[in-house]
Write a structure and sequence with these properties.
globular; alpha+beta; two-stranded antiparallel sheet; six-stranded antiparallel β-sheet
Length: about 325
């Protein structure tokens, strides 16, 4: 059973790709940068827990919230369900597909056969549009193959995996409501909300404060690491593949600002676009330095990355302050 006339969304980032595919079915066609911006997606986190193999550096808001923000800003109804029952989890998804409704799934990409780099990350998203007796048919990012398939058994394992960022077999659907949306107003609302949250982090490892903290923590991490090559080359790979080009989502937000400026002609948007163009380039340098540090085991590359991070903390703060005061 596959949904007829299903239109996939071609994206670089998993959650916007999954949600964009669901929106396509509703006739809502927006670019990936626009979805990321409407999702108030720009963020930063340096996360380190004893149960983790090595620290996680993320450049977006936490999982699940991006899609919540997109649907809120577009006046859509988001239906999210979780269950600890593997049987109920499958039946719920199967029933939606049988009714012609595509679903978004949150899972651990480790179990997906088409992933060439095997690592546990339970905050991965795909859209599902079909199944048969052996396989589930999914939409993933362009770099993972776009239209792909995985065995039903592996899908079950991926959805039911435990650990950081995992959910209990989470899936979601999106429906239209009687209330329409005004894209121009939604853009301004999303920008101001994103800036406000970014500039007021609840703890010091989030937002611009988190970037500054990371400039110190990466030196400690390098010195205490039991496997420098694995830690830093893998982090660089995640920044490149999962962080859209090593710029930790700054490329997407930069392009969102350009698209918003073209639509609204507000000069602050153009200024912020230019600032994020520079910021994105600097983040790409950080990921390159991480990769070099892992391959050479030379702390000098980490020291260089640390200096860039100090500068990035201030630059991002200024850019988001500019956007917070937009009218």
């Amino acid at each position: 059973m596959t949904i007829k006339n299903f239109r996939q969304f071609n994206g670089q980032h998993c959650e916007t790709t999954a949600t964009g595919s669901l929106l396509n079915q509703l006739g809502i066609k927006l670019s990936e940068p626009m979805l990321f911006g409407l999702g108030e997606g720009l963020g930063f986190i340096f996360w380190n827990m004893k149960i983790m193999d090595f620290p996680f550096i993320g450049g977006r808001i936490k999982p699940d919230v991006l899609t919540q923000n997109i649907t809120n800003n577009l006046n859509l109804k988001l239906i999210v369900k979780e269950t600890s029952s593997i049987k109920k989890a499958w039946e719920s998804v199967k029933n939606n597909i049988d009714q012609g409704v595509a679903v978004g799934l949150k899972l651990d990409c480790y179990h997906l056969e088409y992933f060439t780099n095997k690592f546990h990350f339970a905050g991965h998203y795909v859209a599902m549009y079909g199944y048969d007796n052996e396989f589930a048919y999914l939409i993933d990012t362009q770099q993972q193959g776009g239209k792909v398939k995985t065995s039903l058994k592996n899908l079950e394992l991926a959805r039911n995996e435990k650990g950081p960022m995992s959910s209990r077999n989470l899936f979601y659907t999106i429906q239209k409501t009687e209330k329409s949306y005004n894209l121009k107003k939604s853009i301004i609302t999303a920008i101001k909300n994103n800036a406000k949250d970014y500039l007021n982090p609840p703890i010091k490892n989030i937002g611009y404060k988190g970037i500054l903290k990371t400039s110190v923590e990466i030196k400690k991490w390098f010195k205490s690491s039991k496997d420098i090559e694995r830690d830093f080359t893998t982090t660089a790979m995640l920044m490149e593949k999962a962080g859209t080009g090593g710029a930790l989502f700054r490329n997407l937000y930069r392009d969102f600002l350009k698209e918003s400026y073209d639509l609204l002609q507000i000069e602050q948007l153009n200024q912020a676009y230019k600032m994020f163009s520079d910021i994105a380039n600097q983040w790409a340098k950080v990921s390159t330095l991480f990769d070099k540090a892992g391959k050479t085991k030379d702390i000098e590359f980490i020291n260089q990355a640390s200096e860039i991070l100090v500068d990035l903390s201030e630059k991002e703060k200024k850019a988001m302050e500019l956007l917070y005061h937009i009218k």
